[in-house]
Amino acid sequence: MRALFTAATGMNAQQTRTDTIANNIANVNTTGFKKARVDFQDLFYETIAAPGSQDASGTTLPTGIQVGHGVRLASAGRIMTGGDPVNTDQPLDMRIGGEGFFQIDKPTGEVLYSRAGAFTLNQNGDVVTPEGYPLSPNLNIPTGTTDITISSDGTVNGSLAGTQTNIGQIDLVRFSNPAGLQALGGNFFAETLASGTPEVGTPDQNGFGAINQRSLENSNVNVAEELIQLILAQRAFEMNSRVIRAGDEMLQTVGTLTR
To answer: How far apart are CA 119 and CA 32, in angstroms?
Structure first.
């Protein structure tokens, strides 16, 4: 009974789809989160009669006979569209309005990439993530600096001892295929062969996004859309389970023929 195994692949596929939707909804308020979308492909086909072949009478078959064996997961890629802006009162909160990622240095020497711009200062005055990872290139705010301003091109200025002073510059990076980045959790991504190598640039120039101070990027998850997809996944799972039930009843009927 091929239908039993075919429907089982459909149930597994819809379970993965539901898991992905659940993760999207769970991160609806996660700063810089990018939703995922699953794509499926049909499995191999058993060719009983190939299209264009001839039967015993010499007639060419216009369509042939092919029976599929179900579905498989093809990808679960990230959708890198921008999220809605959220205004804050924090001078070190930054949102990228367009293309680009912040560079983050891990203590291990690895460079990570993030769209979450909720930065703060550590004990040395370095601009760091909530985990304490410094922004790259390192940006240090001298003690006593007030009126910190971050321009759209990443220029950081502040008032030190009553004098307007240039503190540093924020750079962004972009990838030819940002959907190919590896999600690590913690709002971090890592470079992969699929993403390509990072291209460093100045914000608000040459296609890079602009820096928006005192603002954060919310998740790009649309709750209404995710709920609709959840209903569709649930119905598809239910229909596949009915196929298994129908196959079981057919086998049961066959089993009673000998009684």
So the answer is: 13
**18 and 113 in a common domain:** no
Q: Which two tokens stand for residue 144?
A: 């006593």
pLDDT at residue 258, rounded to an integer: 66
Domain coverage including residue 15: 2-80+221-256
Residue at 13 is within a domain: yes
Measured at the alpha carbon of residue 25, what is the angle toward residues 183 and 112, in degrees to the nearest 5? 20
* pLDDT tens digit sequence for 240-256: 999 999 988 888 888 88
Q: pTM for this one? A: 0.85
What are the backbone dihedrals phi and psi of residue 19, each rounded to the nearest 5 degrees, phi first? -60, -40
The answer to whether 35 touches 28, Cβ cutoff 8 Å, is: no
Nearest CA to 24 out of 60, 78, 66 is that of 78
End-to-end CA distance of the chain: 21
Domains identified in the chain, total number: 2
